[in-house]
Write a structure and sequence with these properties.
Chain lengths: 168, 789
């Protein structure tokens, strides 16, 4: 069973014929060849596949491609603009918010919605806000810092220090 | 503060420069194995056993083959024709690629389905009918040697029981006599649970065999590409696939942690099918397969004993281990070390009698025993010594911090010979614990704890002061399948003074593209940003044993420094020639040679390199390249002092980590930001088995938590805000004084957390709690001692 759908991915409308059972994450990765969105589990637990659907973060392994018909999808490839990388991307690089990089795209897409809804979150709000996304490498400290940095930058406030802090 | 010899522009050691690899990762441009797409590629999915132990009566693939797009179904019988149905493990045991008659654990590979798409391969997998005759599995390792236990490996000639090996270290007679005469002897039985690395990227490969060229390109998630190339050649040489015809490419890896060291059956099947069909074969396991079938870690049952004086002097330790290896010993250890480096378990304390022994057995569980973010069984050893030290302190009535201070090996006593045969290179254990105690205001905490206790509240303070052993290893003792555990670096500096350096290791997130560049920058004065680092392609990188066991900095990092020093020697000769002075008149500062007493007369490294291509002294070899294979003279011994503070709800038993301070000593630091990131991540991976993670099986051999829904990887909510710091005691034998750090936190955190939780309830008569310590487990123990009715 196949169906024709039209989805707008990172601003470009695309009409594709897809199997009804095709998962959105496979449409993004295989049919459209945007491989920045990753797959880390089969139970919607890890969040590596998180994208924005009409601006709301969603685990694209749990959405059928046909459900995205007529919708706007934003993936990690759509974060940067002609002016440069997004403050969230900058936050991750400046604060060592990633190691292997596998969870990073999904994490950043989740954070994009988080900061849109809550531009100045507390540490606890950040931690709960990203609790649907697993990272096995960083221990989360620097992801929290990355979000705080992005939050400051997006609000036009002074940027926090990106030097590592040590007890002494 | 860390002193830097180079300017921030050069970015040598000690600078927290931002990572070079991040630009691609933050923009979705990483290239992981599932991103590899080749023309004509077919997809493989694997039929797995629902039973832990069963005879295979029949495999009926006819329904699968009726599906349009399903190309083939491969079984053990098919592979048997090429003698590829079994493969050797790193520990000289044997493992099935696909079974011909018996399955040995739930989720074991039974058949492979090849199809034109991922979805059709899955359809084919669902359509394969396998008829099994289930048998009663052996799940309890303590029953493995019973007379009525099934003989699990009759395929192994002469095997009459399920015993794999026996291992010993230390002096039994001396240790026993110390124990006999000692005032105080304490003993705990502990299990280091079976856990999984659960890197967010699972394992997979694209095997691409070119029939015309008789050449295999293998893209795979491997931490050790060269070793894999040699293994493939050893296993498939008899069908004509020899080592010069094999190229292993390890692209970006989404976390490894030891789980991407072994050769899994899926890789071998993919190679075999590509070899037979000539089509590229992609195999990407899903998460549940990864958790249920890929190598486990830990699973050591340990009886730990400590003997000492009433005054708190440690005199001896005795550890007895039962190792549950599943149905084959597929550990990822150096060949001569069946228990890895477990004998580091004598700890950070000054005493001279220890005896350790271990026995390994087969059970109907998945094979493995990988060094999960741990230099070969060090986590198990450290948990044993750090827990039993606390029990001993409690028995003699001395504060666990004071007892540790009293027993530490002193700074001036290094190099120090351990009773199990290691030579610790350096350390300052007192300074580490002092800094940790000062940071948390330890004595105030003890006062607060006493007050809380009087009010009936549970608060605990846990300490772990561990010594790690990393950087395997010296070639006299360390090899994998006979290949010595050196590692390598090759540096090529281009005429314009920019460089590429290649290594035998393979980063999985550790940041090698940045830190190796910093080492070269430190030694040559070429800015780190001008040094491109490449790893993971066996056609271009020099041979090396890969990245695991915190070995990259101790081995390949050392090789980078040594290769760069060869180049600096050459640079000096060229500089002398260019300035028409004697080499003896030259002095080096990062980035240039200058004439002693006349610093205005100098040549920069860039000018010197240019001359190496355009104006080199006659008789000297042109060009500016060097390679070094570094064989470490000893291992390195990082250490740490960790303090954890927990508050426990006295009614619900909910455990909250209030604070966790980690002071690490990994010798000289290449990039403080990256070292700190490694420590943060390792701490969360230490928290995981301490409080959340364990692979659980029922009596029938079913895994009860084989998905990420029920295997509890900590999120940002469970993971506390870690506080870290350093003492710096350089390794005296390492060219840049570094020791390696990636694994210390995973090793040191579990006992600190367990000690804190036990400490909170010890006054009620609890001396030990098995990890993972969940609220329910704690509740049951509190019930046992009568706290809950």
């Amino acid at each position: 069973m196949k169906k024709e759908i039209t989805v707008t991915i990172n601003g470009t409308p695309q009409t594709l014929e897809v199997e009804n059972r095709l998962l959105l994450v496979h449409l993004i990765r295989e049919n459209v060849s945007l491989t920045g969105t990753h797959i880390g589990c089969d139970t919607s637990s890890c969040g590596a596949c998180t994208v924005l659907i009409d601006g709301k973060s969603a685990k694209s392994c749990t959405v059928l491609a046909v459900q995205a018909d007529g919708k706007e999808i934003t993936t990690v490839e759509g974060l940067a603009t002609a002016e440069g990388i997004h403050p969230i991307q900058e936050g991750f690089k400046e604060n060592h918010g990633l190691h292997c990089g596998f969870c990073t795209p999904g994490m950043m897409m989740r954070i994009k919605e988080l900061l849109e809804k809550n531009p100045n979150p507390t540490e606890e709000e950040i931690r709960w806000g990203i609790s649907g996304n697993l990272c096995r490498c960083t221990g989360y400290n620097n992801i929290v810092k990355a979000v705080q940095y992005a939050s400051a930058k997006m609000r036009g406030e002074e940027l926090p220090s990106t030097e590592p802090e040590f007890v002494s | 503060m860390i002193k830097c010899k180079t300017s921030r522009e050069i970015g040598g050691m000690g600078h927290s420069i931002k990572r070079k690899e991040d630009d691609r990762f933050i923009q979705g441009k990483g290239n992981y194995v599932d991103d590899v797409k080749l023309p004509g590629m077919l997809y493989m999915d694997i039929v797995r056993s629902p039973y832990a132990y069963a005879k295979i009566k029949n495999i009926d693939a006819s329904k699968a083959l009726e599906i349009e797009g399903v190309v083939a179904v491969v079984t053990g019988k098919d592979l048997e024709q090429y003698n590829l149905h079994w493969m050797p493990t790193l520990m000289s045991d044997t493992q099935m690629v696909l079974p011909t008659d018996t399955v040995m654990y739930q989720a074991q590979e039974v058949a492979a389905v090849i199809a034109t798409s991922r979805y059709l391969a899955r359809d084919g997998k669902e359509a394969v009918r396998v008829e099994y005759e289930p048998m009663s599995p052996l799940m309890d390792p303590y029953k493995a040697l019973d007379d009525d236990a099934p003989l699990l490996r009759p395929d192994k000639e002469g095997k009459t029981d399920n015993h794999i090996w026996h291992w010993e270290a230390g002096d039994k007679e001396k240790t026993d006599s110390v124990f006999e005469a000692a005032d105080v002897v304490v003993k705990e039985q502990m299990h280091i649970p079976r856990i999984h690395v659960a890197s967010i990227e699972t394992c997979g490969c694209v095997a691409s065999y070119d029939k015309v060229e008789n050449h295999l390109t293998m893209y795979m998630t491997t931490q050790a590409p060269h070793a894999i190339r040699t293994v493939i050649a050893l296993v498939a040489g008899h069908v004509g696939l020899t080592e010069e015809k094999i190229r292993v490419i390890s692209p970006d890896i989404g976390g490894g942690f030891g789980g991407k060291v072994p050769v899994y059956p899926g890789y071998v099947i993919a190679i075999a099918v590509s070899f037979l069909t000539g089509a590229p074969i992609k195999w990407i396991e899903d998460r549940s397969e990864n958790l249920q079938a890929d190598s486990f870690a830990r699973d050591y049952h340990i009886t730990a004993e400590m003997a000492g004086t009433k005054e708190g002097k440690i005199l001896a330790t005795r550890f007895k281990v039962l190792a549950d290896h599943g149905y084959t010993d597929a550990s990822a250890n150096p060949s001569k070390f069946p228990t890895g480096l477990f004998s580091i378990g004598t700890g950070s304390y000054d005493y001279n009698a220890s005896f350790m022994e271990a026995d390994a057995v087969y059970t109907n569980k998945p094979p493995g025993g990988v060094a999960y973010r741990c230099s070969f069984r060090v986590t198990e050893a450290v948990h044993a010594i750090e827990r039993i030290t606390d029990t001993f302190a409690r028995e003699v009535g001395i504060d666990p911090a004071d007892l540790r201070m009293q027993n530490f090996i002193k700074k001036e006593d290094f190099p120090w010979q351990s009773p199990t045969g290691w030579e610790y290179d350096s350390g300052d254990y007192h300074a580490g614990l002092e800094l940790a105690m000062k940071t948390v205001d330890y004595h105030a905490l003890r006062k607060e704890q006493a007050e809380k206790r009087a009010q009936g509240k549970f608060m605990g303070i846990g300490i772990s002061t561990f010594t790690e052993i990393v950087g395997a290893g010296p070639s006299k003792d360390f090899d994998i399948l006979g290949i010595k555990m050196f590692d390598s670096a090759e540096i090529r500096v281009h005429p314009t003074g920019k460089a590429i350096a290649r290594f035998g290791t393979k980063s999985q997130g550790q940041g090698h593209e940045t830190t190796y560049a910093q080492i070269v920058a430190e030694e040559l004065g070429i800015p780190a940003e001008h040094i491109q680092i490449e790893e993971g392609d066996t056609d271009t990188a020099p041979y090396g044993l890969g990245t695991y066991a915190s070995r990259s900095t101790p081995t390949a990092g050392a090789a980078a420094a040594m290769a760069a020093r060869k180049l600096r020697k050459k640079a000096k000769k060229i500089a002398a020639y260019l300035m028409e002075v004697s080499e003896d008149d030259l002095e080096w500062e990062p980035g240039k040679f200058f004439v002693k007493g006349a610093p205005e007369k100098s040549k920069t490294i860039q000018e010197i390199v240019f001359a190496a291509y355009t104006n080199h002294p006659q008789g000297m070899e042109a060009g500016f390249e060097a390679t070094h294979y570094y064989d470490p003279p000893n291992l390195t011994f990082p250490s740490g002092a960790y303090i954890c503070i927990v508050d426990i709800d006295e009614e619900t038993c909910d455990i909250k980590i209030r604070r966790f301070v980690a002071i690490d000593d990994c010798g000289n630091i290449i990039n403080p930001m990256i070292v700190q990131g490694q420590v943060h991540g390792g701490l969360t991976q230490g928290l995981a088995p301490a409080m959340y993670e364990e692979l659980i099986y029922d009596e029938s051999g079913n895994i009860l938590n084989g998905t990420l829904m029920d295997y509890l990887v900590p999120t940002a909510v469970e993971s506390p805000s870690w506080e870290t710091g350093h003492t710096v005691t350089p390794s005296p034998h390492h060219p840049i004084g570094a020791k390696g750090v990636g694994e210390s936190p995973t090793v040191g955190a579990p006992p600190a957390i367990a000690n804190a939780i036990v400490d909170a309830v010890a006054h009620l008569g609890i001396s030990h709690l098995e990890i993972p310590i969940t609220p329910f487990k704690l509740f049951k123990e509190l019930k046992k001692v009568g706290y809950f009715k």
